Amino acid sequence: MKQVTRICWLLLGVVFIFSGLVKLNDPVGTALKLEEYFEVFSKDFGSFFEIFIPHSRTLSIVLSSLEVVLGVAVLLRWMLRQTLWVLLALLVFFGFLTFYSAAFNKVTDCGCFGDFIKLTPWTSFFKDLFLLVLWAVVFFNQRYLRRVFAKGTLGVMYITLASAVAIGIGVRALGHLPYFDFLPYKVGNDIGKLMKPQEQARYQYVMERNGETKTFTEYPTDSTWKYKSMEVLNPLTSKPVITDFSVFDAEGKDHTQDILTGNKLLLIVQSASTADRDRFKDISKLMEDAAKSRKQIRPLIITSSSPQEFDAFRHDVNLAGTYYFADATVLKSMIRSNPGFILLQDGVVKGKYHYHDIPEASKLEELL
């Protein structure tokens, strides 16, 4: 039992650190997931949860950093009993979220491991149950973990350092772009290619005849077999990775293929009402310089705001240029910055830039 306890102790600490770091890699994505939960809860349990929505980004960093710090505290065995009680509260909270999502089909992806590992609600719930089992083994067998690796002032220093590092990682990612991009629009991806299936769907058919059940990879021509069910053998590769990328103008005319042809510099303004307005002088300069580039870069603007709202916004910030519209969720997936730049070459993502990291036009030319 001693060895089992130590294995559970190690797994518990490592999983919490890993989970927190993955979320801190993309705090904006974590905040979007929290907003989704708060919106669901405000509808189901009352408007009280709406007060948390404006603070989602702060909460994403706080909760994610807490996971990392608790994981470090477990591995150091620093104030282990107290740490385990806090862990239990967090596990019960996450367990409720994932069970509620799974049982009532409210949030289809819990965001437990960010966009790095996608988990279904039920998988997320069973993951939380597994962690609760690890917690129980460690909690009820603490006698096998008597050695503390950091205590007293040294322990406080380690926990303070872990807190500072975790918060620092999250704050920097919040002010720039994720360190690692796991989204379909990451640099190097071909958007047009990802909008098509990798291969044709393959099926297997379950047929029945005279009480006998048999599986076929091709639909039988023998009419004596009666259809029972059908299953797709390659569900992941037979569906496009990107299914909702569509760009259109104010009249509703589709411009998606035009966006995916040639060299394009896309200025993504997810929402005019929440966009940071401080950098638009530099943004406009880059768009002007890009339009004069020898690489024939065409700057365009894409937003999810209404035509009326965006027209007023662009006059306020002195932003000139052709602008189109797209779904808000798509733009949030394209780049974790509002506003932000994406450089395309025939639909291939060559560069992505936060508004805090606006490049020179020469840098764009080097990438094309």
Automatic annotation (TrEMBL):
Which segments cross the bilayer?
A: 58-76, 83-102, 122-140, 152-174
- What topology does it adopt in the membrane? Multi-pass membrane protein
Its keywords, alphabetically, are: Membrane, Transmembrane, Transmembrane helix
Q: Which residues form the signal peptide?
A: none
List, alphabetically, the Pfam families matched. MauE
Location in the cell reads:
Membrane
Identify the InterPro entries for this entry: Methylamine_util_MauE
- Domain (Methylamine utilisation protein MauE): give its ranges: 2-139
Major site of localization recorded for this protein: membrane
Name assigned to this protein: Methylamine utilisation protein MauE domain-containing protein
Organism encoding this protein: Hymenobacter glacieicola
